[in-house]
Amino acid sequence: DRVVVKPYINGNPVTTVNANFMQKQDNKLTEIYLPDTIKIIPEDTAFSASTVLFCSRESVAYTFAEKHNILHIAMEYGNYPQLIRDGNFTYYIINNEYALLKECDKSISGTVSVPEKINSLPVTGIFAYAFKGCESLTQVILPETATNIYPYAFDYCRKLESINIPDGTETIGTAAFEYCDSLKNITIPKSVRRIEASAFIGSGLETVDLPQKIEFIGSGAFCYTHLSEVTLPSNAVIGNDAFGSTNISKVYVPAETENVWFNAFFGYQSNTQKIVFYVYADSPAQKSCEENH
């Protein structure tokens, strides 16, 4: 679905988005186009997870989307994305500069390779819900250009066993690999700075190496996985239950870590087994462990 908000009504600029805008649209929208005339978006405006905002990079809407982690694409108003079908894939063509893989045939099975280019334009990401529910997919090979893993990109790909995350990727989106039951391990490149909420929740992960420069791990990111141990990033902010309801019994804490974020392990979805935290003597983490446990 597509909703285009007009910049002017009877010659008067449209400047405000009602906080209940999405509720009035029954949360079924996938594309919303907001003009630069919009200057006010209430902080409590709720956008559904399946909504993508198209707005210019200089707009209030773009700033709002960045602040609130809302799915968005920078695009001049009126310059709508082109859709191109090629084989099993459908792509967004954005500003005639790059392509995003928007959708894959749900019947696809086995191994698939995403091309590096489509119509001579680089494929720079896997868009939200692109592979959602492709339950016969076992392996995905991504090109090095595809450094954007959007929310729910591989949600419920239950037979997915192998996928490469390209170097240069900075964010793994919300629930990107949610309930990928067969995904036992994955290499997270050193470029990654954010792993959003529920990114791997319910997946089959047994091992994961977290780059030390990760800055944020969202709530429930690795909840309900089969991890047995983990080495924390040096100074990431880690959300509640990020590692809740796992098999983790060993947590290794770097010397420079200042906050151990115990709620990541002992939140609402608590681990039932004993967890040993390995810390450096006289480190901030040792003091934190002594104060909390």
Helix-and-strand structural type: mainly beta
Shape: globular
The value of Rg in angstroms is: 21 Å
Largest sheet: 6 strands, mixed
SSE order: EEEHEEHEEEEEEEEEEEEEEEEEEEH
Beta-strand content estimate: 25-35%
> What portion of residues is helical?
under 10%
Mean pLDDT: 91
Low-confidence stretches: 25-29
Number of helices: 3
Distance from first to last alpha carbon: 51 Å
The tally of strands reads 24
Can you walk me through this structure?
The protein is mainly beta and 293 residues long. Helices cover 7% and strands 28% of the residues. The protein has three helices and 24 strands. The strands form seven sheets. Strands 7, 8, 9, 11, 12 and 14 form a six-stranded mixed β-sheet that branches. Strand 7 (82-86) and strand 8 (89-94) form a beta hairpin. The longest helix has 9 residues, at 284-292. The radius of gyration is 21 Å and the shape is globular. Residues 25-29 have low confidence and may be disordered.
List keywords for this structure.
mainly beta; 3 helices; 6-stranded mixed β-sheet
Summarize the structure.
A hairpin with a 2-residue loop joins strand 11 (117-118) and strand 12.
Outline the secondary-structure elements.
Layout: E1 2-4, E2 8-9, E3 12-13, H1 21-24, E4 31-33, E5 52-55, H2 60-67, E6 72-74, E7 82-86, E8 89-94, E9 98-104, E10 109-113, E11 117-118, E12 121-126, E13 136-141, E14 148-149, E15 162-163, E16 171-172, E17 185-187, E18 194-195, E19 207-209, E20 216-217, E21 229-231, E22 237-238, E23 250-252, E24 276-278, H3 284-292
Parallel strand pairs: 1-4, 4-5, 5-6, 9-12, 10-13, 12-14, 13-15, 16-18, 17-19, 18-20, 20-22, 21-23, 23-24
Antiparallel strand pairs: 2-3, 7-8, 8-9, 11-12
